[in-house]
């Protein structure tokens, strides 16, 4: 339990640093509905901003949202609430509850929903492995690039199963490791990714699917989004040079200042996680998938 608390504090501090005050990240402060996630490139999507909004729409499609149903949706580790606010505007009869560990993210989300006069969203500081919500409360749950932050992955699945209604839908979009062992260089790249993102670990898609089956989820579907019109290759379409310079700059400072320089306290170091992510994606040591499952 102490290890889990320490891990969640590290994750909380990571996002508190980024969003208080909000940093200028790819125009997200100018358009808060873009979110802090990868965009989804499909046919006809040409810019990163289009891809970021398309990812929000893609979540809505996976959830099979329509505006004729008054249902409850949980955004599990919602970040700054971009996806929920965007979908709440599009589907005003659907209620969205976003939870996250970071107060700064909740404050940011509340500010945006107030400015946009969105009434069908609320944002709370909670852990998604111990939400405190009543049993069978939500019609659906989505976790957009947040499942990876669960200290113990099974705990996330158990809690989502608990709060979902029978036949409720779980949607997870995230990165997963391959089953293959990593060579020393790629292990260092992987460790750099974990450190920069404050991610405790990644599991394989095979293990995730196994956990879902053990807990009785049915109708499990898996979409590989790391293909040419998906996630991995869009890394090359972002301002990659900026992130590469951030990455090299922090490494240089660490080399010069040695122990006096604390990498984990540097925002540029954290944002430079794009570089190891790119290596992991292109080398196929890291896949990005959309998984849906239904609670029995």
SSE ordering = HHEHEHEEHEHHEHHHE
Mean pLDDT: 85
Strand portion: 15-25%
Give the low-confidence spans: none
Task: Give the fraction of residues assigned to helices.
Answer: 40-55%
Enumerate the strands of the largest sheet in spatial order, edge to edge or round the barrel: 3-2-1-4-5-7-6
- Judging from the principal axes of the Cα atoms, what is the shape? globular
CATH topology: Rossmann fold
Assigned CATH class: Alpha Beta
- Helical element count? 10
Biggest β-sheet description: 7 strands, mixed
> What is the correct CATH architecture?
3-Layer(aba) Sandwich
The tally of beta strands, per DSSP, is: 7
Provide the domain count. Answer: 1
The class by helix and strand makeup works out as alpha/beta
Q: Which radius of gyration do the C-alpha atoms yield? A: 18 Å
The named CATH superfamily: Vaccinia Virus protein VP39
- First-residue to last-residue Cα separation: 29 Å
Protein architecture, described:
The model has no long low-confidence stretch (mean pLDDT 85). The longest helix is centred in the N-terminal third of the chain and has 18 residues, at 2-19. With 296 residues, the protein is of the alpha/beta class. It is built from ten helices and seven strands. The protein has a single domain, classed as Vaccinia Virus protein VP39 (Rossmann fold), CATH 3.40.50.
